[in-house]
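Changelog-adjacent note: as of this version, every example in the card shows the full chain rather than a window. The one below runs 178 residues end to end.
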Amino acid sequence: MEQFHGTTILSVRRDGRVALGGDGQVTLGNVVIKAGARKVRRLYQDRILAGFAGGTADAVTLFERFEAKLEKHQGNLVRSAVELAKDWRTDRILRRLEAMLAIADREASLIITGVGDVLEPENGLIAIGSGGPYAQAAARGLLDNTNLTAEEIVRKGLAIAADLCIYTNQNIAIEVLE
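Full-length structure tokens:
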């Protein structure tokens, strides 16, 4: 069986706001299986935004584990992310999961990977998934050269990625924290 492939998740910080968005396309090989998947959600009393790239079932498993860490650590994003990354790296079953998480709260934006990385990219700009490099380049240009809001940059960055990446579509969902 072929692996599910593709997605684009983009998060931008500007003027005290953080926006995190993703497209809705899920593919199996070269076939679109679903165009309206929801890959972005709010966690922990709506105070944390999260998006995933990779296998859907793997990401759902990671979301559940991450939510449990957030509960255990009273919403501390960084501590919960580090604890999830440790479990993900060391647990025999979790190690096989193929996904990445992009998470953000009012203070931090992080990427969590299955090899134990918890990364805080520069400028609060996160882009993961197949269309990530396109969305990141677009968002970087918009951040540096416009006065658009975080949400507007995410929307435009994802639209540009969808025009370039065959694994990304225009069915965009965005969540914002103020």
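Structural remarks: The chain has a mean pLDDT of 91.
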